[in-house]
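Re: PBG structure - here you go.
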Amino acid sequence: MSPSSGYEIPIRPRRLRSTKNIRRMARETRLSTDDLIAPLFVMDGENDREEISSMPDTHRHTIDRLVDKAETLHALGLPAVALFPAIPEGLKTPDAAHALEPDHLYPNAVRALKEAVPELMVITDTALDPYNSDGHDGIVRGGTIRNDATIDVMREMAVLHAEAGADIVAPSDMMDGRVGALRNALDAAGHTDVAILSYTAKYSSNYYGPFRDALDSAPEDKADTPNKNIPENKDTYQMDPANGEEAVRELRLDLDEGADLVMVKPALPYLDVIHRVQQHSDVPVAAYNVSGEYAMIKAAAQNGWLDEKACALEALTGIRRAGADVILTYFAEDAAHWLEQ
Ligand code: PBG
């Protein structure tokens, strides 16, 4: 058949789109519960949960409720959770000392999870921001974020997390040299089997706003703490959103230092970075579909402007297509249900 004007159309890509089954067969990217990791927030208390105002349907859970949630996620087939603690304001200090208390909320939560659902992997976070009264991922002195002093604390955090049962520790801080330092600390303490998921290319992004609400950890809200002269943003350690090539440099360093998995964060505004990192990486690449990316879809869906399920699945598929093997996403539980249907 030729068009009315008479010329031939020999190649017709639409053939591979013509039925549901042929589309299913020709599909290049698959989304599976195998690839999804659920971030979870834990708080003090008993049998309680609080919805995070800027993250509808996402909660901070007390340890007992966190365990229930973990059982649900495990039953749905998700392989891992990434845990973040909401630390009461009164326990935050400029040196983040509470992070190293052997039986505080966070290691207690890890122990409870590993006891109740041992197969579900627990990924712990080794940055200081949940514990730091200055709201930074590192120690602030004289108005600057101190790289090496921060790493000293993180080394102890990583060992504490490993002792509590963490399967993977994830430095989300962007200090230089921390992957090698954590590997060294874990190995020296005998935790050679604990893996490191490095936040390799973590950008100084405005899409973290709802997460900072969840932990009350926004540096711009901390200007009146005793430690004055606090930088209002994380630009001196998190990456400039304008840079792509620099992600490859960070990747090379993390691989040299022994990262087992590498991550790009956020995901949707950085799909090109995910692709670059995937091209250069010989370890699995994760992407973090962050709180603001979640909030955008949620808010639009609540207004009736977008179809939540369709848009979330399209976003997650796009992140996989860009090159992410694994996705941290607040949609993980819903996506596991949707993928079952
Ligand atoms: C901080 C940390 C952040 C997130 C994870 N770990 C925020 C930040 O860097 O300020 C953001 C996650 C999200 O927005 O979903 N170490």
